[in-house]
Amino acid sequence: MLSGKELILATRKFAHENRLLSWYYTLSTIVILIALMLGTHYNVNLLAKIICSILAGLVIVRLFVIYHDQQHGAILNKSILAEIIFTLFGIFILAPPSIWKRSHDFHHKHNSKMPVSEVGAFPTLTVEKFSELSHGQRMAYLASRHPITILFGYLSIFMYSLTIYSFRNSPRKHIDCGIAILLHFSLGFAIAYFLGWQAFLLTFFIPYFIACGLGALLFYIQHNFPGVTFKVRNQWTYEDAALESSSYLIMNPFMQWFTANIGYHHIHHINAKIPFYRLPEAMKAIPELQQAKITTFNFKDLHTSLNLKLYDPISHRMLTLTEFHSSGF
User: Fold this and answer.
1) Of 109 and 89, which is predicted with more confidence?
2) Where are any strands of DSSP class E within the chain?
């Protein structure tokens, strides 16, 4: 059985892209997104416009995962054209490279490491730390993990946390966040003013709402699920964080395409240089990667994951608020 560095080394042969395939997936996804965006406005049938709007939101998720791979250097590395395309997309989706790459790289290096940092992750407190907080601090913490916060990820996470907050705190370091905010509001206003409120909702608001909300949900449930473990720094290892604290999210082929295989999240955390289209291949070839902790999109699993609030280092598991209160803290 492969473990530790041996397991990481075994994945290296999959960390090589097919350059033409990377460009094909990138450009075809962009073309599909543009076609759907045009369909939200130029379709004569309202139902067709709504369908295009919903699908556009889902395709944005796919393009975001491809952008995420490019930022990791898994695809189209050192391509000036790709850098321009994805920088523009990062600004478009309110996750500019200056903040996205820094926070996401930090997440990979510190995933499930206690004490848990809020950088690049949903904040997670231990029961002991939570019990020391004031009532107001508890409410703020619980609000940051609330399903409504995740549902409205467009406003709470992408618009505020990633762009507005970053630019406000360090405008010189995150100038692209300032540009993203300016362009986003300008684009939204222009669509509403020149094309009307229906176009604003279908071409702008709904695609952003779906893409950012689904993106936030994906990130949450892949690191907050029954069986997830957190370890203190001197016990933490990169491979354990990948296999024990990142899930394999099982999806139907339809959603697997829209999410560009991000469900193979445990493999992505083992080796972020593996292109998204090679993740299934790596899992099929390496038996150890098939022993993953599984999550799904079914209502029961979503409800369970969203109810997990605190980590108990004694029992090594996440607790609900009900379990916390009944534990005597």
Assistant:
1) 89
2) 113-114, 125-126, 231-232, 248-250, 294-296, 310-312, 317-319
pTM here?
A: 0.95
Residue whose entry in the numeric block shows the structure tokens 């926070």 = 103
Q: What's the pLDDT tens digit per position in 167-202?
A: 999 999 999 999 999 999 999 999 999 999 999 999
Q: Cα–Cα distances in Å, from 215 out to 7, 128, 179, 273?
A: 28, 30, 22, 20
The two tokens of residue 61 are: 């998720």
DSSP state of 38: H
Q: What confidence tens digit (pLDDT) does each residue in 9-40 have?
A: 999 999 999 999 999 999 999 999 999 999 99
Show the 3-state SS of 25-86.
HHHHHHHHHHHHHHHHHHCCCHHHHHHHHHHHHHHHHHHHHHHHHHHHCCCCCCCHHHHHHH
Which of the 8 DSSP states describes residue 94? T
Distance CA 142, CA 305 (A): 14
Amino acid at 315: S
How far is residue 208's CA from residue 205's CA, in Å, rounded to a whole number? Answer: 5
